[in-house]
Specification:
Jelly Rolls; 18-stranded mixed β-sheet; mainly beta
């Protein structure tokens, strides 16, 4: 199963954080107080952080529940909520917003046992999951890799299913299917948009790589 290729390393120690397990290029995180960090392998990411990859950068973040987010180049994602307690499913919460760019998400235990508490926001719809592996790419304003695709957020499912919802309608996307959500329109099924997802081969190897974390903090 494709998901197995991206389940990396050991569980993150802190329940309210994620850890950068693989990184090729520059990854930064902006905190709610405005401070910025340049992240490295094994750096931690917490709720409230807005992470951004630069050109040609892929990054993988592993969360405490075992979920993995692989971030594509030229992407910005805000981690809105992140809470996991192995002994208390009622406290589970994961909410992230894809501001721009693209990602692949492999959900962990939160997505399996607390599906209603796992959400991925985009500019045109909210993605709810049912235990799955999915890709999301924001092409509402074009951008690198979008080519001549009509504007919209493109979602493809590798394993499981997702529910897409906005004010115009809802749609379930299952394994092997793709959907596009244009602004102010209901989600609709589409052909494979052909959006590239080519992280370095090292991302599929077990365990984290690179030296011990050494964040560079930039205060404004």
């Amino acid at each position: 199963m494709v998901a197995g290729a991206f389940v990396l390393g050991t569980p993150v120690a802190l329940a309210n954080s994620g850890q950068v397990t693989h990184l090729s290029g520059t990854l930064s995180a902006k905190k709610a107080d405005g401070s910025m960090r340049i992240l490295s392998s094994r750096s931690e990411v917490a709720a409230g952080d807005t992470v951004t990859t630069e050109k040609d950068t892929y990054a993988n973040i592993r969360f405490a529940d075992g979920g993995n987010m692989t971030i594509k180049p030229n992407t910005t994602i805000k981690i809105e909520k992140l809470s996991y307690d192995a002994k208390n499913p009622k406290g589970d919460s994961f909410l992230a917003t894809l501001v721009s760019g693209g990602l692949r998400m492999i959900t962990g235990l939160i997505g399996q046992r607390s599906r209603d508490n796992f959400k991925m926001g985009t500019s045109t719809a909210t993605i709810g999951i049912r235990g799955t592996t999915f890709n999301a790419d924001d092409c509402t304003a074009g951008g690198p890799g979008c080519g001549d695709l009509p504007p919209g957020v493109y979602v493809g499912v590798t394993d499981g299913s997702v529910e897409l919802a906005n004010e115009s309608g809802r749609s379930v996307v299952r394994a092997g299917q793709y959907s596009v959500i244009a602004r102010n329109q209901a989600p609709r099924q589409t052909a494979n948009p052909g959006l590239a997802f080519t992280p370095p081969r090292a991302f599929s190897a077990p365990g984290a790589s690179g030296p011990k974390a050494a964040d560079c903090v930039i205060r404004r």
